[in-house]
Amino acid sequence: MSGDQVTEPTPVAGEQPGMWTRQGPYLLDMATFGQLVEDIAEEVRAAGFVPDAVLSVARGGLAAGGYLTCALGVPVMHTVRVRRTADDSRYAAKQRPVVDTSVPLGLGAGDKILVVDDIVGTGATADAVLEFLAASGVAREDVRFAAVVRNHRSGHVPDHCPAVVDDWIVFPWEAARESTHDCRPLPVAARVQR
Fold first, then answer.
1. Burial degree of 68 (CB within 10 A; 0-12, 13-18, 19+)
2. Phi and psi for 37 in degrees, rounded to 5?
3. 138: which DSSP letter?
4. Contacts (Cβ under 8 Å, ≥6 apart) of 1
5. For residues 109 and 142, what is the distance between their CA atoms, to the nearest angstrom?
6. What SS3 state is found at 116?
7. Cα separation, 16 vs 41, whole angstroms
8. Closest to 98 in 3D by CA, of 116, 134, 120, 125
9. Cβ partners under 8 Å of residue 125, min gap 6
């Protein structure tokens, strides 16, 4: 192999080839996060979707879910935990998603649900939550999925998602626990124009 050839890093379990450029993660500041979540609220309103409940995917979807519950005047917010990554490290290995609820959510036929997560990577978490809701009797046409960002190679495109990224992203609440010296700001081009 010559010196100018670059080998692609070995992908971790659950990762699609080319998901991450690995040029350094994006750092999403709180102001931009707020703008993106307000973009979701505007899209939901424009679509005429009036949810009976917001279902936040813990932990990443909690901040956005709380905001959307208030911004959209939704009377109820539920939380579901989906364990997917092996740990909290960057480019962490993925495992089969496990949906975990501490109490029955009381969701069923006729309920309109806005599911909220921070990011859609491969789409496996979204698929697991949609299956969970279907098993609870919630019809697919009564569910909208929203994410603050999605990976450009995701197999699932959320109904509402204002940004697309090609690398790891560090959310505002993660910045205190990990080094951000190698992070780049979220580029304007990542915002989806609808």
1. buried
2. -70, -35
3. -
4. 7
5. 9
6. strand
7. 30
8. 125
9. 57, 82, 84, 97, 117
107: tokens are 């969701």
User: Would you say 36 and 162 are in contact if contact means Cβ atoms under 8 Å apart?
Assistant: yes
> What residue has token string 């707020």?
34
Contact 156, 13 (CB under 8 A): no
Q: Is 55 exposed, middle or buried (0-12, 13-18, 19+ CB in 10 A)?
A: buried
Which pTM value belongs to this model?
0.84
Can you read off the two tokens belonging to residue 29? 């500041």
C-alpha span between 54 and 63 (Å, rounded):
12
Beta bridge partners of 189: none
Give the list of residues 6+ apart from residue 76 with CB closer than 8 angstroms, or none: 52, 53, 54, 69
State which amino acid sits at residue 188. V
**Is residue 92 classed exposed, middle or buried when 0-12, 13-18 and 19+ CB atoms within 10 A define those classes?**
middle
pLDDT digits (tens, 9 = 90+) for 3-35: 454 444 454 445 566 776 778 899 999 999 999
Q: What is the DSSP letter of 27?
A: E
- Give residue-wise pLDDT tens across range 72-130: 999 999 999 887 665 666 656 666 767 777 777 889 999 999 999 999 988 888 999 99
